[in-house]
Inverse folding.
């Protein structure tokens, strides 16, 4: 059974190719990849699939896209059925079946039965994350179907890109949430209704207090109290976002603070003025902020700006995330039409959990402090925490759950040359 869904990072592996005894798949990032698990090219149907892909040489140019064919049949090599065509078309000799097993297309679980192989093509983005999977159930149409999908996914990249000054050090990651899951979160918000969202302010006494001030922030939030929904959110962040953060920033996020759905309403000009997310003792543990858009095409305005780095605006696509250090000044621009729905978790690690626990006494509101205390104490196993009810605003933190994370180790050899 194919174990991945769109947005998941695919396995990195080493495998023999015709010219490299240990080709490192992790080095092919930076272009769209089609990875076709053919099984064996011994049949006319398989040969038809291979020949059809070769007709798309203009698409697979090693700059925008590359195609890799995976075979588990040693006779494909010994009898010369398959050949590489550079640029664009390469082979993997997976004769021990290990790569095919990692991708779930080779099933050896049934004892006493012949291994089952499910031929398919994976479309993988420039960050080596799955975009789509296509079983080879119609060999005559398969290549055309996959290549049309690739064309639709390709960004309009020029062959030479000049450096752009003023870009903030942020990470944009598409496909963290599926469109259907985004709609489920929006529906949850609309059923529950939002409450005024506050923010933490440090006082001269060193204590942090939750305040609501519409001159600085105009937003309504809903805390996710549905454990199944919160767990589904956590699973997607763990599988699809945490590995990208580790790769980009060398930071292993293990904790999530707050499970909320936020709404910036264009009817009220919803916004959040320029601020940082870790300037009080109560927020010092936060390392990275995530802004995951749920309906990017349904509102105007509402983009993110990082004033320290210039006027450039950032807008993740629906289901996509913008991740940045909590130390960066940032602003949510006013929404001028429609409603912007998003979810806004903070990520931190075990050291951050220690800091958070040590700074509990800096939270002025006793009820909020007690709720945060419970979340820190039970956060490691992801258990449900009691909801704190601050006097003003919606500073209720749903949970401090642990985020299991793993990321492949990058390698450096064997990358196809660019056009």
């Amino acid at each position: 059974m194919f174990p991945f869904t769109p947005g998941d990072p695919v396995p990195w592996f080493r495998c023999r190719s015709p010219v490299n005894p240990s080709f490192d798949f992790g080095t092919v990032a930076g272009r769209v990849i089609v990875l076709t698990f053919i099984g064996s090219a011994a049949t006319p149907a398989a040969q038809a699939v291979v020949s059809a892909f070769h007709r798309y040489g203009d698409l697979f140019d090693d700059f925008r896209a590359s195609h890799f064919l995976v075979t588990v049949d040693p006779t494909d090599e010994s009898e010369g059925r398959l050949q590489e065509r550079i640029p664009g078309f390469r082979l993997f000799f997976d004769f021990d079946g290990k790569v095919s097993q990692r991708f779930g297309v080779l099933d050896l679980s049934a004892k006493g039965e012949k291994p089952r192989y499910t031929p398919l093509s994976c479309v993988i983005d420039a960050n080596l994350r799955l975009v789509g999977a296509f079983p080879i159930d119609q060999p005559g149409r398969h290549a055309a179907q996959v290549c049309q999908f690739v064309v639709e996914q390709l960004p309009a990249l020029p062959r030479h890109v000049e450096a752009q000054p003023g870009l903030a050090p942020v990470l944009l990651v598409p496909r963290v949430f599926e469109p259907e899951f985004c709609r489920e979160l929006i529906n949850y918000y609309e059923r529950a209704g939002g409450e005024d969202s506050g923010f933490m302010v440090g006082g001269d006494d060193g204590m942090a207090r939750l305040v609501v001030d519409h001159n600085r922030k105009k937003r309504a939030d809903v805390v996710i109290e549905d454990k199944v929904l919160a767990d589904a959110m956590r699973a997607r962040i763990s599988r699809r976002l945490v590995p990208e953060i580790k790769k980009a920033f060398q930071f292993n996020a293990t904790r999530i603070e707050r499970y909320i759905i936020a709404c910036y309403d264009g009817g009220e000009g919803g916004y959040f003025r320029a601020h940082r997310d870790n300037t009080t003792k109560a927020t010092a543990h936060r390392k990275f902020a995530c802004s995951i858009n749920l309906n990017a095409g349904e509102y105007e305005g509402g983009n993110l700006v990082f004033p320290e780095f210039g006027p450039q605006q950032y807008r993740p696509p629906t289901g996509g995330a913008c991740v940045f250090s909590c130390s960066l000044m940032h602003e949510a621009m006013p929404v001028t039409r429609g409603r912007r729905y998003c979810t806004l978790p903070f990520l931190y690690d075990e050291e951050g959990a220690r800091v958070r626990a040590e700074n509990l006494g800096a939270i002025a509101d006793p009820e909020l402090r007690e709720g945060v205390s419970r979340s820190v104490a039970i956060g490691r196993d992801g258990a449900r925490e009691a909801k704190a009810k601050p006097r003003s605003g919606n500073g209720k933190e749903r949970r401090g759950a642990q985020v299991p994370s793993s990321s492949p180790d990058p390698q450096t050899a064997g990358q196809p040359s660019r056009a």
User: Anything to note?
Assistant: Residues 227-249 form the longest helix (23 residues). The radius of gyration is 24 Å. The chain is about 25% helix and 25% strand. The mean pLDDT is 87.
